[in-house]
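Hi Y.,

Following your request, here is the sequence exactly as I used it, all 483 residues.
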Amino acid sequence: MRSALKFSLGIILAFLVFQSCEDYDDNPVPTSLEVKDFIWKGLNLYYFWQADELNLADNRFETQRDLNVFLEGYETPELLFEDLLVARTTDRFSVIFNDYTVLEGLLQGTAKSNGVDYGLRYKTGSTTEIYGWVRYILPNSDASSKNIQRGTIFYAVNGTPLTSNNYRDLLNLEAYTLNLADYNAGNITPNGESVELSKVAYTENPVFQINVVEIEDKKIGYLMYNGFYSGFENQLNQAFGQLKSQGITHLVLDLRYNSGGSVDTATRLASMITGQFYSQIFAKQQWNAKVEAYYNDTNPSALLNRFTDVINNGNLINSLNLTKVYIISSGSTASASELVINGLKPYINVVQIGTSTVGKNVGSVTLYDSPTFGKEDKNPNHKYAMQPIVLRITDKNGFGDYVNGLDPTIEQAENLANLGIIGDQNEPLFNTAINYILDNGRMGQPFTEDKQVYFKDSKSIREIGNGMYLEELPEGFNSFLLK
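Below is the corresponding structure, written out as tokens. Let me know if you'd prefer a different format.
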């Protein structure tokens, strides 16, 4: 039975104590308020900025009855959730779903898709008019059988020009026609062509492209990896096994379109790149005062992510034991991708090529309406689940101040006039990495452009597009809640 969460510090080294002002049997939660009650109590316990929100204070409500009255003042669970968050300028990423199966799918790379992964940019000289460009096409999708490919430009959907106000409504349609255009030195000119596309449920394999280029005495491995989905860790490990078997001497890891995902998978990817740092600290998690107090007293290591030698199914990791890695980034590189870059820097030389990353150093976890907020024994009366920000993540030294993004070693934007083929050694960004390797770090002046050109991309406009998350709550706290 979850009690009203009145928090008390100072007993046995700040040990958590939950106490109830009134017994739940005397003041039950009405069925009509179950979802809202779950939202308040989950955020009160786990929300990273709980201490900054007055309505989430531990002494905000004296009784369950008082809390019920407060909850009744909100028309929908969504309105309550939004009102309990700190300003969206601080918390850009917490979300709530009325169907946790949709959320669970998104966390594993499953979403309605027609197979077009795209970027959106402002038209030259405009702050409202935008256009899209195809970054890549997903295999075995609707788009894979149509006349559309990497570099295709579109300016309208169903004949309506795209703007910063209507793009979500238009591009979230399950079926639509993209109106195409030509690109000429930044100018977008409609060409009268179009392509009809339809979305279906699609699960993306994030291991998109693998290649090995041999030049002189160098064997340069290339891997484009587009999402940290734990369900594809075996495929990721196999890709590293392939690179390892070919004896690569250098690795170019392309994360330019990777918006993030699982913290655990990011830790394992870092372990595949290295291998010589087994059990050492890769990242540190910082939670709110309640969670920190509990784990600092009972099990501090539960909030540490350590280099490992196995993936989630127990198979041994195919590690490369590298001391330097080349990572391609962009304004779409977020969360778990940034974690890999930041977490590796204290251990090996990370050469970052591209443009600055998003700047997401906070992570979330799925909270269900259950006695422990975990997946077991969920309330059968509804399917709501939350994905609130619950932690900030740093490298082993405690550095995690990159809310404005991680800046590249070599700045180079993608040039829509010369995109190249992904994985081909002549693709501009991969080619820059190759030249940097061959010339021992001596580079010319790569292509740059106005940083304000970037607007959004197909991953970032999803409800949990730039997500970094834990697969489950840290071990130990859940069992304490049941006592």
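Residues 207-449+464-469 form a domain with the 2-enoyl-CoA Hydratase; Chain A, domain 1 fold (CATH 3.90.226.10).

Thanks again,
Q.
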